[in-house]
């Protein structure tokens, strides 16, 4: 039986941010975890540091809840996972659910990862292929590698598409000549 | 006691002159402990203030009564520096609650430093929202002293329409009506100069009394001579000055017994400059209009060098006697202040290039060691002066060389004032946003003035306001080359680079400035712009907040912060920031624009229009602003006025592609397809690589039913959008086919049909050329 191919790492989300097409909006949300070991909690999950991580401390599934103040358009979720450093703590099956509140969640994506070694991009698109609008997102870790109980997650980023240009309901302009006159700064 | 003070005071001033603040402070503290007089208090406070410890000067002056105008002025200055505006006002005018002095009272009280006092007061009024009073103070200050730039600048910022030709002009008003008080505020360098001059002979007299008794015998015989000379020349202020310097006495000024001090204040304005100009004319080689400090300094030892010669010296001393005749009661205090002020004038390093080396000469004379060194440098000047003196003494009247030097001085003063007028006109035009005019005025100044940081920065700013960013960038890079230490105006440069998206230049600028000066807001604004360009808005926000911390009165930092919040969709905080910017500077049109933009995003179109119009009223020639107003009016369904506004915008700046684009889109919305297409075709020629143009053309064709052309343009638009497909374009293409076909069309199919369409349209020469150009670029 052929070994399943390893999940390739995605591009660094910072590059995506620099294109100006997406914006990280994790700071606009309230983050909570189903369980965590002291010193390995939300702060470590959101500190932009790949060395620190969240370690769960309960029963599966381990949950990361992201709640926004208002209904937000989200385009993409990026998770950093590294099998080489986390081994059995590395998540292998992740489910992403969205909804209005805890009782209203519906799964939109489920993915399996095999020995990931970098950023995993999870695009959140609805049936019409446009970014979903939601109040709450829940990332559930259903299983780990080597059947580990607890999980490590090093970093999560959530992205929204950048709104169109400041004036007019048109898509973004592409040339500098246009963009120069777009706004007074 | 007064005798004991003199060498110590001289030593203190010398230390201040050489920026040896620790020495100055130490000596001044000892002097104050010894004497405890107000002059010593003022001296100590000055030492503290100049060494950068305004709080020490403030506390010192607060705890001790200061009645002299100079002490009060210094206290007020400390208050303003420490942001205690109410207290500063109280010191100067008696406060809001007590009976306030009028500005005329202030003028009479402060005498020669009235112009600076009024300028400070105007600053306080403007900061405390009493703009009318503030501008009045500034006007008066300028009337008294036309060489002050900061009141003029403040008035321009308030939006006042001044006439620089009237402002920067010597007038008869420079002879004040009321005589200023005997104790003159020493902050006014010119005043100090003339008091020193006046006091010079007294001082020499004093020293003579101490050291040389013999010279007094010669006094009476020469006194009439010098007195007559002075009285003959007295009407002309410049000649008065010439006379003063050459004879080393201000006895001429005292020749008017009614107004002994008027001559002093006379010297306040023009005299200061004429004196230094005279020094320039004497010294010769210096080409600068403003005499350099070194030159200025060298003028004054002349009295001393004269004093070393017996004949000219004796001429100085009789002048001293006249003040005693004229105003005996004033002698005692005047002498003490004289000793003090004469010393102070030497010490004022920031003076209008008038330095009195007078006190430094006192120890020199005593020690006789430094005299030789300093005397050598002054030798030429003193020789010149001596020659002139002797000629003046010989002729006993208006001597021709003296008269020539006077006309030279006059010419030099006129040139300075001419420069001020020109720069004033240019600055005024810029503040009213008549940018083209500002550029033409500022570009026509002489080359050696043009190639300075100030002029080029303001020209760059004028280009920036016209949205000619490439020109602005060129000018600003020149500024950086000439004056790498200049930070004023660098925030405009950084925004220019932000618009042009030159990230390398911007990050280099940011690094340079933050390394050079971490305490100026402009450096942090540049850093913030740099990160904003890199789309790292959180870091940009942090830097803009730092700029605000460093200087809460810097309006542009608030505006930029507001823009960053708007980009991160935190619209409430953005609104607060823009409002703060307007609080700091009511005429900051960028902040008004920012408010309008936020309201537009929130779809509050009428509010948006109001704010945009307010911004336009401040800056009426901004085509970008007109463009935005046009779009908002269209959103408010006022399409006709929208089109009119856009026509105006295009009239002002035909190079603005967005105006044409929005005009085309409004025409399209009003179903005027042909006109829209024509507009867009023109736009295509101007900006051939812009995907939005093709997108709109495609929509127009779609409406016109020419599906193949529509599809072609949509595909071009998608190709030109390198950062990934815009959803809108994709939707537009998809929607095109939905009414006709049942099943949704896949992209592959679209591209195949587009390819077919492209082949069929190869016959159209223009389009094909454009198309081949595109396909090359796409790869």
TrEMBL record, chain A:
Could you read off the lineage of the organism from its UniProt record? Answer: Eukaryota, Metazoa, Chordata, Craniata, Vertebrata
The cross-references to Pfam families, in alphabetical order and at most eight, read:
ANAPC10
Question: What PROSITE patterns does UniProt report for this protein, alphabetically?
Answer: DOC (PS51284)
Function, in words? Component of the anaphase promoting complex/cyclosome (APC/C), a cell cycle-regulated E3 ubiquitin ligase that controls progression through mitosis and the G1 phase of the cell cycle. The APC/C complex acts by mediating ubiquitination and subsequent degradation of target proteins: it mainly mediates the formation of 'Lys-11'-linked polyubiquitin chains and, to a lower extent, the formation of 'Lys-48'- and 'Lys-63'-linked polyubiquitin chains. The APC/C complex catalyzes assembly of branched 'Lys-11'-/'Lys-48'-linked branched ubiquitin chains on target proteins. Component of the anaphase promoting complex/cyclosome (APC/C), a cell cycle-regulated E3 ubiquitin-protein ligase complex that controls progression through mitosis and the G1 phase of the cell cycle.
Note the PANTHER family from the entry.
Answer: ANAPHASE-PROMOTING COMPLEX 10, ANAPHASE-PROMOTING COMPLEX SUBUNIT 10
GO CC list: anaphase-promoting complex
What InterPro entries does the database record attribute to this sequence? APC10/Doc1 (IPR016901), APC_su10/DOC_dom (IPR004939), Galactose-bd-like_sf (IPR008979)
**Subunit annotation:** The mammalian APC/C is composed at least of 14 distinct subunits ANAPC1, ANAPC2, CDC27/APC3, ANAPC4, ANAPC5, CDC16/APC6, ANAPC7, CDC23/APC8, ANAPC10, ANAPC11, CDC26/APC12, ANAPC13, ANAPC15 and ANAPC16 that assemble into a complex of at least 19 chains with a combined molecular mass of around 1.2 MDa; APC/C interacts with FZR1 and FBXO5. The C-terminus of APC10 binds to CDC27/APC3. Interacts with PIWIL1; interaction only takes place when PIWIL1 binds piRNA. Interacts with FBXO43; the interaction is direct.
Q: Which named protein is this?
A: Anaphase-promoting complex subunit 10
Q: Which organism is it from?
A: Gadus morhua (Atlantic cod)
TrEMBL record, chain B:
Which keywords does UniProt give here? Answer: TPR repeat
What Gene Ontology terms describe where this protein resides (cellular component)?
anaphase-promoting complex; cytoplasm
UniProt-listed GO biological process terms:
anaphase-promoting complex-dependent catabolic process; cell division; metaphase/anaphase transition of mitotic cell cycle; protein ubiquitination
Compositional bias (Acidic residues) at which positions? 758-767
Family matches, as InterPro entries: TPR-like_helical_dom_sf (IPR011990), TPR_rpt (IPR019734)
> Which PROSITE patterns does this UniProt record tie to the protein?
TPR, TPR_REGION
- Among its keywords, does the record have Flavoprotein? no
Instruction: State the residue spans of region: Disordered.
Output: 300-331, 758-779
The cross-references to Pfam families, in alphabetical order and at most eight, read:
ANAPC3, TPR_1, TPR_8
Q: Where do Polar residues bias regions lie?
A: 304-322
Q: Which domain of life is it from?
A: Eukaryota
Q: Where are the TPR repeats?
A: 115-148, 521-554, 555-588, 589-622, 623-656, 691-724
Q: Which protein family is it in?
A: Belongs to the APC3/CDC27 family.
Protein name from the UniProt record: Cell division cycle protein 27 homolog
Q: Which organism is it from?
A: Gadus morhua
Taxonomic lineage of this organism? Eukaryota, Metazoa, Chordata, Craniata, Vertebrata
């Amino acid at each position: 039986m052929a070994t399943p191919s390893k999940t390739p790492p995605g591009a660094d989300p910072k590059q995506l941010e620099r294109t100006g097409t997406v914006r990280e909006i994790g700071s606009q949300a309230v983050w909570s975890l189903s369980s965590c070991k002291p010193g390995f909690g939300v702060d470590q999950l959101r500190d932009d540091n790949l060395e620190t991580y969240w370690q769960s401390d309960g029963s599966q599934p381990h949950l990361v809840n992201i709640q926004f103040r208002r209904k937000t358009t989200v385009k993409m979720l990026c998770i950093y996972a590294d099998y080489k450093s986390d081994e059995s703590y590395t998540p292998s099956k992740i489910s992403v659910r969205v909804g209005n509140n805890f009782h209203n969640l519906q799964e939109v994506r489920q993915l399996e990862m095999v020995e990931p070694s970098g950023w995993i991009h999870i695009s959140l698109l609805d049936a019409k292929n446009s970014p979903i609008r939601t109040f709450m997102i829940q990332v559930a870790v259903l299983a780990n590698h080597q059947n580990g109980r607890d999980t490590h997650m090093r970093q999560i980023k959530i992205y929204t598409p950048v709104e169109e240009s400041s004036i007019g309901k048109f898509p973004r302009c592409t040339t500098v000549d246009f963009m120069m006159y777009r706004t007074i700064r | 006691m007064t005798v004991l003070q003199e060498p110590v005071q001289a030593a203190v001033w010398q230390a201040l002159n050489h920026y040896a603040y620790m020495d100055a402070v130490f000596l001044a503290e000892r002097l104050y402990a010894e004497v405890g007089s107000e002059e010593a208090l003022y001296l100590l406070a000055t030492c503290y203030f100049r060494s950068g410890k305004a709080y020490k000067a403030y506390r010192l002056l607060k705890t001790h009564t200061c009645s002299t105008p100079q002490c009060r002025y210094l206290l007020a200055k400390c208050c303003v520096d420490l942001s205690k505006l109410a207290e500063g006002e109280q010191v100067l005018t008696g406060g809001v609650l007590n009976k306030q002095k009028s500005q005329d009272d202030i003028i009479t009280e402060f005498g020669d430093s009235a112009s600076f006092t009024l300028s400070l007061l105007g600053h306080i009024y403007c900061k405390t929202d009493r703009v009318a009073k503030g501008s009045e103070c500034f006007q008066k200050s300028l009337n008294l002293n036309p060489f002050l730039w900061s009141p003029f600048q403040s008035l321009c910022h308030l939006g006042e329409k001044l006439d620089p030709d009237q402002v920067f002009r010597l007038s008869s008003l420079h002879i004040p009506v009321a005589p200023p008080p005997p104790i003159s505020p020493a902050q006014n360098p010119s005043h100090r100069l003339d008091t020193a001059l006046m006091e010079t002979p007294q001082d020499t007299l004093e020293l003579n009394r101490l050291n040389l008794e013999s010279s007094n015998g010669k006094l009476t015989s020469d006194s009439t001579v010098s007195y007559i000379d002075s009285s003959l020349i007295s009407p002309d202020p410049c000649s008065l000055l010439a006379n003063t310097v050459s004879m080393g006495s201000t006895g001429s000024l005292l020749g008017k017994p009614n107004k002994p001090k008027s001559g002093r204040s006379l010297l306040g304005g023009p005299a200061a400059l004429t004196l230094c100009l005279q020094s320039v004319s004497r010294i010769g080689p210096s080409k600068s209009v403003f005499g350099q400090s070194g030159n200025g300094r060298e003028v004054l030892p002349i009295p001393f060098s004269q004093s070393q010669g017996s004949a000219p010296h004796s001429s100085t001393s009789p002048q001293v006697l006249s003040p005693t005749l004229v105003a005996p009661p004033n002698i005692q205090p005047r002498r003490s202040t004289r000793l003090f002020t004469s010393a102070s004038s030497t010490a004022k390093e920031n003076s209008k290039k008038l330095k009195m080396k007078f006190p430094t000469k006192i120890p020199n004379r005593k020690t006789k060691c430094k005299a030789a060194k300093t005397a050598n440098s002054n030798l030429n000047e003193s020789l010149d002066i001596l020659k002139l003196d002797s000629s003046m003494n010989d002729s006993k009247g208006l001597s021709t060389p003296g008269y020539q030097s006077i006309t030279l001085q006059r010419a030099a003063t006129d040139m300075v004032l001419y420069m001020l007028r020109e720069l004033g006109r240019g600055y005024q035009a810029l503040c009213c946003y008549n940018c083209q005019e500002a550029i033409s005025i500022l570009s026509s100044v002489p080359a050696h003035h043009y190639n300075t940081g100030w002029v080029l920065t303001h020209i760059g700013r004028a280009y920036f306001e016209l949205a000619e960013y490439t020109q602005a960038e060129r000018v600003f890079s020149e500024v950086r080359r000439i004056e790498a230490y200049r930070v004023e105006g660098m925030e405009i440069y950084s925004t220019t680079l932000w618009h042009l998206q030159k990230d390398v230049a911007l990050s280099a600028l940011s690094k340079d400035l933050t390394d050079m000066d971490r305490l100026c807001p402009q450096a942090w604004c540049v850093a913030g712009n740099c990160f904003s360009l890199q789309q790292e808005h959180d870091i940009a926000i942090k830097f803009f907040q730092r700029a605000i911390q460093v200087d809460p009165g810097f309006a542009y930092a608030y505006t930029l912060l507001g823009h960053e919040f708007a980009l991160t969709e935190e619209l409430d905080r953005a609104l607060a920031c823009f409002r703060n910017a307007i609080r700091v500077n009511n005429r900051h049109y960028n902040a008004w624009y920012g408010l309008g933009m936020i309201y537009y995003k929130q779809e509050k179109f009428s509010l948006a229009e109001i704010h945009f119009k307010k911004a336009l009223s401040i800056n009426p020639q901004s085509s970008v602003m007109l463009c935005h107003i046009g779009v908002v009016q269209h959103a408010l369904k006022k399409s006709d006025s929208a089109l009119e506004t856009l026509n105006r915008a295009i009239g002002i700046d035909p190079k603005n592609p967005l105006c044409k684009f929005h005009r085309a889109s409004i025409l399209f919305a009003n179903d005027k397809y042909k006109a829209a297409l024509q507009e867009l075709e023109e736009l295509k020629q101007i900006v051939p690589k812009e995907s939005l143009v093709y997108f709109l053309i495609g929509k127009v064709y779609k409406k016109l039913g020419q599906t193949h052309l529509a599809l072609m343009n949509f595909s071009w638009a998608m190709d030109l959008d390198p950062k990934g497909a815009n959803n809108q374009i994709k939707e537009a293409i998809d929607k095109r086919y939905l009414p006709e076909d049942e099943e949704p069309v896949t992209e592959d199919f679209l591209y195949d049909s587009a390819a077919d369409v492209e082949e069929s349209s190869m016959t159209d020469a223009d389009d094909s050329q454009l198309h081949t150009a595109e396909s090359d670029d796409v790869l």
